[in-house]
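Technical annex B. To support the medicinal chemistry partners, we prepared a structural model of the target in complex with uridine-5'-diphosphate, based solely on the information shown next.
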Amino acid sequence: MEKCSVIVPCYNEEDALPFFYEEMNKVAASMQDKLEFEYIFVDDGSVDGTINIIRSFAKEDERVHYISFSRNFGKEAAIYAGLKKAVGDYAVMMDADLQDPPTLLPEMYEAVKNEGYDCAATRRVTRKGEPWLRSIFARLFYKIMNKMADLNMVDGARDFRFMKRNMVDAICDMGEYNRFSKGIFGWVGFKTKWLKYENVKRVAGKTKWSFWKLFRYSIEGIVAFSTAPLVWTSLIGLLFFFIAVALLIFVFIRALLYGDPVDGWPSTICIITFFASVQLFCNGIIGIYISKAYLELKNRPIFIVRDEA
Ligand code: UDP
Ligand code: MG
């Protein structure tokens, strides 16, 4: 029988995990004539009792495997570790908080098995239960990202994806340090079916994302999958070069015609501060790219395993 690996990144999920395990088992049982399951829980350096709960699952249930990180490496690293460990013909990533409903699994499996897709992905069509400011910025991010990067990112897309082995292998081959999953999934291509569902509230525990964390995450996504900001800085530079030449000619001719009254101080200061800030801004953008290249070059491991089973 074919096997499906369920990868669950967990960071301080002791409250949610029992619910997840119960729900997931129900769905696994309902599909047992078609698919065999293995669970890979990735404990992303949790500081609560998450690992004990996972170990207790593993003790009773031989389908359960786990990786425990030496510290918190982030969800992207956890997904990567899980995908590398997965041995199934299919793999699916699911949050531990039941915001990715396991009840969608039969439909996802159907799409990949019988409808000719390589992958079934999910998107939320509502953002109910989310702070409105967060929704606005999330929408804005997808708009900007799709304009800038050469890949199509779907608004509201979740990391909840059911993939065939060939796609899993393609993703594992992308060993980059700055991992932006939403971009990586899009970049590898393959035929993807999008399933829609309504946003579900987290079953227990708290979200790990603050607004500031999300903001940094979006900058990372842009930097990882687009070099457009670098082009912009050059264009801004070019634009101001032409403005400077025009100004120069104007000042020169004025001096020839009317002499040189020394009264240009305020405007000079304005111009200097303006250009200084533009230059700093552009330097900053370039600096971000260099720092990312620097981290990539160090070739550090994406995660460090403390314990595994
Ligand atoms: N997560 C993780 N490492 C982190 C942050 C989150 O493995 O550093 C996991 C978390 O345990 C959950 C999933 O990623 O299973 C999604 O996190 P969360 O529910 O907090 O995000 P949201 O659904 O609010 O976007
Ligand atoms: Mg969640």
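Notes passed to the chemistry partners:
The two ends are 23 Å apart (CA to CA).
The chain has two domains: 3-226+302-308, 228-298.
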